[in-house]
Amino acid sequence: MSVRVLLVDDQPLVRAGLRVLMADALDLTVTGEAGTGAEAVRLARETAPDVVLMDLRMPGLDGIAATRAITAAGGPTRVLVLTTFDDDEHVHAALRAGASGFLVKDMALEEILGAVRVVAAGDALIAPGVTRRLIAEFARRPDAVPRPRGLPGVTDREREVLTLVGRGLSNAEIAAELVISPATAKAHVARLFTKLDARDRVHLVIAAYDAGLVLPSG
């Protein structure tokens, strides 16, 4: 089945480039385009796309508020943020608003298409290397202070795994670090998804920060 995608960006050229690229992909279909957050919310409601490729900086209702409105509806639509990573201060807020991950605009177009497919499949949304970049960006911000909270029901081993996820390690790297099998590492991560009500790996990273397991100072 084709993955239905809503393109949201205030720059028509960006939307046009993505539309042309997706037109060549047999498994991707663009359901619509929006240049503002308000349009994005309306079109997401009307067309029910599988994935919304969401810019953050837009006039009027911004991408964070639009993401919150779309995900609050509780439907199957997932939001994937597309942002200029180096100068955008709102990525973390977007993730908290319910975005399932983020892409950076300097990524290769084929990588963006691949990420859309991953999001639509409900799999892990941010590659470990990109997660490390996100963590490094948080560390440079003066307001990047975690808000400690408890982790009820999480075992000591799962806390160790969550810490490593927060540091940006993949399941294979976690397995090597803890001297366990990759399958065991994957099982621990899966249990953390359930216990922390996390939709994906991005939200496990946020949980690690909130619990104080990973600090901005590194």
Automatic annotation (TrEMBL):
GO terms for biological process: phosphorelay signal transduction system; regulation of DNA-templated transcription. One of its GO terms (molecular function) is DNA binding. InterPro entries: CheY-like_superfamily, NreC/VraR/RcsB-like_REC, Sig_transdc_resp-reg_C-effctor, Sig_transdc_resp-reg_receiver, Tscrpt_reg_LuxR_C, WalR-like. Residues 4-120 form the Response regulatory domain. The modification 4-aspartylphosphate is found at D55. It holds the Pfam family Response_reg. Residues 147-212 form the HTH luxR-type domain. Keywords: DNA-binding, Phosphoprotein, Transcription, Transcription regulation. It comes from the Bacteria. This is Two component transcriptional regulator, LuxR family. It comes from Micromonospora auratinigra. The lineage of its organism: Bacteria, Bacillati, Actinomycetota, Actinomycetes, Micromonosporales.
